[in-house]
């Protein structure tokens, strides 16, 4: 049975590959250097899975010593999961994907904690939860503003003085409330 696009994307190793390829073009060798804890065979297997699912794409092929090295990036529409696919999932499938999402976050946090000489305050580590009351229009405006904030930083490339920072959002609406109208 073919994995859904959500299954392909939410795999822990594939999520890490995707994160490295956001706004970048990298070879498998460059990915290996950025993700040294992933065994080479596993890295190549997961790159292939992402390419087969059209989540990532080859943007160049560079001849190197008698072989061809592929350069990958995120596929223009590869990360999109259709509304139909989302709506056709069962509650159990949604819960399973949410658990995978949380497991990926926990893996990122564990990798951070396993580094030497961490400083949670100086490194800007935080996680918080808040409840806000917004009508649908206020929520759409909030998402629009958040999208602008993300767009302002999403094109940043790795360079001296910069480090990757994993930012995750989860929006869970509460029960609909009625004031009797």
From TrEMBL:
| Cited Pfam families | HTH_20
Keywords linked to the UniProt accession: DNA-binding
Listed InterPro entries: ArsR-like_HTH (IPR011991), WH-like_DNA-bd_sf (IPR036388), WH_DNA-bd_sf (IPR036390)
Superkingdom as given in the UniProt entry: Bacteria
Q: What GO molecular functions are on record for this protein? A: DNA binding
Q: What is this protein called?
A: Helix-turn-helix domain-containing protein
Q: Which source organism does the UniProt entry give?
A: Neobacillus rhizophilus
